[in-house]
TrEMBL record:
Protein name as catalogued: Helitron helicase-like domain-containing protein
Length: 95
C-alpha cells in the first residue's frame, strides 16, 4: 500500500505528473545550467512551462490547476504575513 504524498514535498510536480516528466527530471526545483547562473522565480517557472513550445504542459488541465492553486496559496500566505506584520507594528507603537 502506498503512503500519501506530502504536498509540501520539494519535487511534488515530478511525482504527481509522471506523464509530463517521464524521466523524473527538470521539475520546478531542478538546478538550471545557464551562464551566468540564474534561478527562475516561481512565476517565471510557471510562465515558461505554460508558454513553452511543448504543449504538454498547457494542455494538461490538472497541471494548470495545480500551479494555479499553488500561486493562490502563495499570495494568501504573503498577504496574511503582511497583514500580521503591519498589525504588530501598530500595536507596538501604541505602547
Amino acid at each position: 500500500m502506498n503512503a500519501p504524498i506530502d504536498n509540501r514535498q520539494e519535487h511534488l510536480d515530478l511525482l504527481c505528473f509522471p506523464t509530463l516528466f517521464p524521466t523524473g527530471q527538470y521539475g520546478e526545483h531542478q538546478s538550471r545550467q545557464s551562464f551566468p547562473a540564474q534561478t527562475l522565480s516561481f512565476s517565471e517557472y510557471i510562465k515558461s512551462r505554460l508558454l513553452n513550445k511543448d504543449f504538454r504542459f498547457c494542455r494538461n488541465h490538472s497541471y494548470c490547476l495545480h500551479y494555479y492553486r499553488l500561486k493562490i496559496n502563495k499570495a494568501l500566505k504573503t498577504g496574511i504575513y503582511n497583514l500580521l506584520k503591519t498589525t504588530r507594528q501598530r500595536w507596538s507603537n501604541c505602547w
